[in-house]
Amino acid sequence: MEEKKAIRKQIFAERKACSDKEIQEWSKEITKNITALPEYQTADRILVYADYNHEVMTGFLIEKAWADGKEIAVPKVQGLDMIFYKLTDFAQLEPGYYGIPEPVSGEIVQWEDALMIMPGVAFDRQNHRVGYGGGFYDRYLEKHPRVKRVAAAFEFQLLPQVPTEPTDISPEIVVTEKQCIRG
């Protein structure tokens, strides 16, 4: 646990040090890399986080997915769980859990056959993931094992190795602005 805390502290500091322009440019490259994946091209439905605080920006991906005729849903925290709301307009989002943009209205969806774009703090080349510590994605994915998992990350979030626990559910692919790493 201490090791994960130290990693979070380090990556948050690196994220904060990035300029808005860098975050935007890299996020556009990551969007290009995700949308080039066969997993994206064959998916009709995408579960994607709403970015916050210098995470990989997902707005570009959401707009591209809408343009490609795909359905989008974003998470809202309810107690210890995440529920996904279909997103048809950015106006549905308002600051929620810890100030993270969350849907305030819309249709709740339970998509089993979908592509999930997940956030994370740090990853390694085996696609292990250090999340934010709430366990929301692990609990959700445990209940929805058919969902395909892609993580969006900046290159500086890749570490030689990150600690893992038995309950951690790793992404199948980690996509950065420079590469796609398949686990």
Q: How would you characterize this protein structure?
A:
Its cofactor is Mg(2+). This protein has helices at 2-17, 20-35, 38-42, 59-67, 136-143, and strands spanning 45-48, 71-78, 81-86, 93-95, 101-103, 108-109, 115-118, 122-123, 129-130, 148-152, 173-175, 180-182. The strands form three sheets. It has an eight-stranded mixed sheet. Strands 4-5 form a two-stranded antiparallel ribbon. The protein is built from five helices and twelve strands. The longest helix has 16 residues, at 2-17.
What brief labels describe this structure?
183 residues; alpha/beta; Rossmann fold; eight-stranded mixed sheet; 12 strands; globular; nucleotide-binding; magnesium
Briefly say what this structure is.
This protein has 183 residues and is an alpha/beta fold. It has helices spanning 2-17, 20-35, 38-42, 59-67, 136-143; strands at 45-48, 71-78, 81-86, 93-95, 101-103, 108-109, 115-118, 122-123, 129-130, 148-152, 173-175, 180-182. The protein is globular.
Number of helices: 5
Radius of gyration: 15 Å
Q: Do you know the CATH topology?
A: Rossmann fold
Strand order of the largest sheet: 6-3-2-1-7-10-11-12
Helix amount: 25-40%
- CATH architecture label: 3-Layer(aba) Sandwich
Summing up helix and strand content along with how strands pair, one would put the structural category as alpha/beta
> What is the distance, rounded to the nearest whole angstrom, between the alpha carbons of the first and last residues?
23 Å
Report the β-strand fraction as a percent range.
15-25%
Characterize the overall form: globular
